[in-house]
Write a structure and sequence with these properties.
By secondary structure, the chain is an all-alpha fold. The chain folds into two domains: 80 residues, 434 Repressor (Amino-terminal Domain); 56 residues, no CATH class. It contains seven helices and no strands. The longest helix has 26 residues. The chain is elongated, with a radius of gyration of 25 Å.
């Protein structure tokens, strides 16, 4: 994907995810969504189990696995459907995607420039702070316009 396309995709996703990012309203209830919705509907575990087509004890396993985080999306979707609900699934970044990419590019640029600067200092060719900042800024821009995967390399 071209860097312009990636930037547009980030902008689009940031706009779409913004309402979810800061909202505590969408956090899982203490007893889990399945149990909270089932109880709010006045539906027993036995009734839900018949709607899904499983044995009653399976509902308690579903509720328990949701709380532990081991439930599959498939199970959660079947359960939601049986309660006439829609499963909504999203990864919500803690920061806007564009900000995450910019921060990561800056971090990578600092790392690269500082490594080169150290070598130059050993050779008595050290850059002053203003020149370092300039180099970091230039490399950050270069990284942001290049292959995005370059900023996510781990060493």
């Amino acid at each position: 994907m071209r860097s312009e396309d990636r930037a547009m995709a980030r902008k689009h996703l940031d706009k779409k995810l913004a309402p979810l990012r800061d909202s505590r309203d969408f956090l899982r209830p203490p007893k889990g969504w399945v149990k909270a919705v089932r109880e709010a509907l006045g539906m027993t575990a036995s009734q839900l189990s018949r709607r899904i087509g499983v044995a009653s004890p399976r509902i308690y396993e579903i509720e328990k696995s949701e709380l532990s985080g081991s439930i599959t999306l498939s199970s959660l979707e079947r359960t939601a459907h049986a309660m006439d609900c829609q499963l909504v699934y999203a990864l919500v970044p803690r920061l806007p995607l564009q900000k995450m990419v910019e921060q990561r590019a800056l971090l990578e640029a600092k790392k690269r420039v500082r490594a080169a600067s150290h070598t130059m200092a050993l050779e008595d060719q050290a850059l002053d702070e203003a020149a370092l900042r300039e180099q970091i800024e230039a490399l950050t821009k270069e990284l942001l316009s290049g292959r995005a995967s370059a900023i996510w390399k781990e060493e």
